């Protein structure tokens, strides 16, 4: 069965930003979709997020699509590092990044460097990185790094900021058609 798991951002929830729209669109395409409310979302903690994601996924297989937003992308990459065998079908990273962005609250996700040599082979159909060219939190350079390290297809959205909810007077991003186009 085709499955999708959407991992939300710092301070997010299953009903935040474009997640409900993506869930509905994926369900129209025959996916069973879960958007787990991650524990301790503000600030996020890898020690609780990773086991929660592992439990929500259960047994990974090549029918599974993992979709992450912001720190959710790092959670997914950390999850892929833990897989000893098996693969997921595809990984879509929205506003993804590879370093702690200078934020003390995110240091716990980066106690070790991401091991791209472990991450890259864990997605059967590869990676897609969707980045905005004016994200105030995650520089466009991270999309280029994900493209380089994971051979990700890089999709640049123009003027989409962080593709999140109404934060810091940002217009909320309630739909993300690039996600569906890149399944």
Give a verbal description of the structure.
This protein is an alpha/beta fold and 183 residues long. It has one domain (3-181): Rossmann fold (3-Layer(aba) Sandwich). 29% of the residues lie in helices and 16% in strands. The protein contains 6 helices and 6 strands. The protein has helices at residues 19-28, 46-57, 71-82, 116-119, 141-150, 177-181; strands at residues 3-7, 32-34, 64-69, 90-94, 127-132, 153-157. β5 (127-132), α5 and β6 (153-157) form a beta-alpha-beta unit.
Compose a concise summary of this entry:
The chain is α/β, with parallel strands linked by helices and about 180 residues long. It has helices spanning about 20-30, 45-55, 70-80, 115-120, 140-150, 175-180; strands spanning about 5, 30-35, 65-70, 90-95, 125-130, 155.
């Amino acid at each position: 069965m085709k499955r999708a798991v959407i991992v939300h951002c710092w301070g997010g929830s299953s009903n935040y930003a474009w997640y409900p729209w993506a869930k509905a669109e994926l369900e129209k395409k025959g996916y069973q979709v879960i958007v787990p409310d991650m524990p301790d979302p503000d600030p996020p903690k890898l020690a609780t997020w990773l086991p929660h994601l592992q439990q929500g996924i259960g047994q990974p297989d090549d029918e599974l699509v993992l979709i992450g937003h912001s720190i959710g992308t790092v959670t997914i990459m950390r999850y892929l590092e833990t897989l000893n065998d098996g693969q997921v079908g595809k990984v879509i990273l929205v506003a993804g990044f590879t370093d702690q962005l200078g934020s003390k609250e995110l240091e716990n996700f980066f106690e070790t460097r991401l091991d791209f040599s472990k991450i890259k082979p864990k997605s059967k159909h590869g990676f897609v990185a969707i980045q905005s060219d004016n994200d105030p939190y995650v520089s466009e350079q991270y999309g280029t790094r994900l493209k380089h390290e994971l051979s990700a297809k890089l999709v640049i959205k123009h003027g989409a900021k962080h593709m999140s909810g109404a934060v810091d007077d940002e217009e909320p991003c309630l739909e993300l058609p690039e996600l569906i186009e890149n399944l």
